[in-house]
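DATA SHEET
Item: assembly model
Revision: 1
Owner: S.N.
Input lines:
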Amino acid sequence: MNPVTWSGPAFLFFYLIFGICILRLLYKFIMKKHTGPLINASEIAKDPYKIAYLSGGKSAAVGVATVSLHDRGLLELENEILKTVREESIPSAQRPIEKALLIYYLVPNKAKLLINYAAVNTACDSYKHELQSQGLLANSACFVERIIPCSIAAMILLAVSYYKISYAHAHGHYNTNFLFILTCIFLIVITFFLFKRLTAAGAQLLSHLQSLFALLKNRASALQAGGETNEAALVAAVFGLGVLSVAQFPLIRQLHPTGNGDASSSSGSSDSGSSCGSSCGGGCGGCGS
Amino acid sequence: MRVAALVHLIVGHLAVAAAEEAVAVVAVNFKDRVGLGWRPEISAHILQHLDHIDVLEVIADNYFSASQKDIQSLEFLARQTSVSLHGVGMGLASSQPVELRYLERMARLVNRVRPEFWSEHLAFVRAGSIEIGHLAAPPRNQETVAVTVNNIQAARNIVGSLPHMENIATLIQPPASSLAEGQWITEIIEKSEAPFLLDLHNLYANAKNFGQEPLELLQQLPLAHLNSIHLSGGCWIKEIDGQGERLLDDHIHDVPEDIFELLTYVAQITPQNLMVIIERDGNFPAFDQLLEQLDLARRALQKGRELRSAS
């Protein structure tokens, strides 16, 4: 019972399932559960921009930093023009990326995701190296490690596809375009796996943060501006700027034009029934009101 | 004579200094810890300030039906810091046996998360098929003592460890009671050998609501088995008939000063290390204010330990 001898549609269906299984195995192999040193979540959580870089790269880090600076009153927005409120505030900026943004906007400029500014690039490169050294972002050694399993997966899929195409042509069937297209799709997916930004540890960390902060995401639209805390920055770093309310953080409209800022539905299963009073009407120790 | 007086003065000062240092050393030797209830609403702040929080208490019931992703995130949290699991839905203090499925759920979660300990309440939450929806004080008599002890033993057999058992607040004295609250709790704790989780605000509320002195009630409790302490706040509510007030333990107010004084007293009279957890379920203040409450708890503990060492 050789699937290669099956008719076109039947073989295509087999190849689709076969290919998905191969890709799934490849993904599991590449992203196998991190068993390395424990990642210090508290230390990482102290820098929302680092998490934003992990989650969405340079643009995410710059976006969160810009919104945070505006929220804290260090940047002023007027008619889509951002400017640094006080030059004296620059030395006290908490992170290099903030310093870079404040220096740039000393000259009032249109608010945008400043991803081509040298000082911002330097700050983001620093995050990249830190995250790579912590094993959260893939580095060149990681990519090299992935080459062999990705190559094996690609060769298996190519071999099966080539065998079927040869068999079909040998029997006078030349309608192999769909098979060709499906094979190309699988190879593209394998390429994505090969160059995946996150390591297993990085993906796990983000997943854990998304789960732990799921309720915050549900309530992100209610997060108040005012910059007293960087809670909004941390939520935006984990879930993207789009979860914040544009009414509270109007700068998002220029930086994140596709989102309306309203919190989307929860991605986690934990909900507000989290108090000790979940089984009682009042506090954890006794009868409620 | 003057030289002698001077020497006496110097020696006296040195003795006092040595005594103070000894007290400080003894206070440091206690490994008391202070933590906070894990609440998703303040999860971001908690994670950013884990270095100020010695332990997190997680409501176990929220994870009994959680997805694998959520449980894995809880495992991750438990690797970051000490975690305890706090159940609210077992109803161990009852006149009926605890349902196995609640114990099995807790057992699975404990096995996954490996918390430092798990805890439950000296309360019932259901009667027959009726779910009450909150923690209720059962009649305090020998029958409920016996069933509660059996339930705690069953919990140990299935979960693999004894739960820390917490006293609850009640706005009414449970009918059909033949034992005083302190006596009832002591019998259960001593017969089951379960560690005791003392909720100081619950004790305080019960004392105030039923005309007792908090210290008097405290001294009736099995403090030799004390392991962990809950602190929380509440508010005064009017009686239904409008005459008088009762103290409601609602967990949405700051811990009052009286409770910290009780904590100091407990630290003074108990020799064992204590784990103190502040419970806040809502109306969250700025997180710095919650951290300040943790520091107040630490100072109250230290003061108690110093008083203990000095006595």
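QC remark: Confidence is low (pLDDT under 50) at residues 260-272, 277-283, 285-289 of chain A.
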